[in-house]
Automatic annotation (TrEMBL):
GO molecular function, one term: oxidoreductase activity, acting on paired donors, with incorporation or reduction of molecular oxygen
Positions of the Luciferase-like domain: 1-295
InterPro entries in the record: Bact_Lucif_Oxidored, CmoO-like, Luciferase-like_dom, Luciferase-like_sf
Entries under PANTHER family matching the protein: LUCIFERASE-LIKE MONOOXYGENASE, N-ACETYL-S-ALKYLCYSTEINE MONOOXYGENASE
GO cellular component: cytosol
Protein name according to UniProt: Luciferase family oxidoreductase group 1
Cited Pfam families: Bac_luciferase
Leader peptide range in chain numbering: none
Annotated family: To bacterial alkanal monooxygenase alpha and beta chains.
Amino acid sequence: MTFGLSFLDKSPIHENEGAAAALRRTVALAQKAEYHGFRRFWVAEHHNSPKLASSSPEVLIGYLLAQTKRISIGSGGVMLQHYSAYKVAENFNLLASLAPGRVDLGIGKAPGGLPISTRALQGAYDPTRRPSFDAQLADLDRFIRGEDAATTPEDRLSAYPSPPTAPNRFLLGASPESARLAASLGWSFVYAGHINGEENAVSATLAAYRDAGGTYAVLAVAVVVAETDQAAEALDVEGRRFRVEIEGGQGVNVGSELQALEYVRQAGAASYRIEERSPLIIRGSPTTVQAELQRLHHLHGVDEFIVDCPVSDGAHHLKAIEYLATASRALAA
């Protein structure tokens, strides 16, 4: 295979089940991904969402590491704006000390929820003292690398413990600015194609990453795979995405127009813009999906794909890993 293949899970909670069942399924997915040779397995961060159990990726990563043996486990991603860069570095250095060489630190710029949860997460902070995202990411990078600008040993600040192998570092984004920021720090970059899959945007952003010296480009894609093309087309998916831009605030992506309007209401915005995005959704049989991944790999120079499964049936996610693995083995042969 000419590219890596990995899996993203949000621990969805289905009707008539609880969070415990959703999390057991996440563990089973990670183990199946490991068995079939996937490169990494990531979990997301979402807040105040009754249908998702993945509110704290750091906690879930630790459990998944203990339930697997080889596959890299990571965050897709930690929403850095809510936290101290120092504390995030401590968390992931500890994880990397528990499972050296298997921990991925993926960082996102989005809030991972609507304004009500953001206010709850940031309520103890003085907003006038909060650093910019770029500054937070630079601080996090220094702590993970074990670097410090202190002029005397007494003032040195380090994020202990010091793992034998530092966490692998990824910045998640969908803009040339994010791509260039990742490259400037020597981080891998993940383009969120499962949110905005417009081909020109993907091409321009990944080209900006490479031009800025970036060395490892990952493309997140939504994949709907079944035994045949017809069966894949018949599957129900949650594939719509909307971009909300409010005056004087952060732009975010949400899953429905109702969520977009609720974001505006909670933010108290008088001026806003909502536009529907076109996520990159690949549908078809294992052979069809593999052929499209190959096309995108050659077109954009993608080193790895992170697969998000938008099918609402959680049991299908387990089957999707099998389908993708079968197609990858056939390609390798």
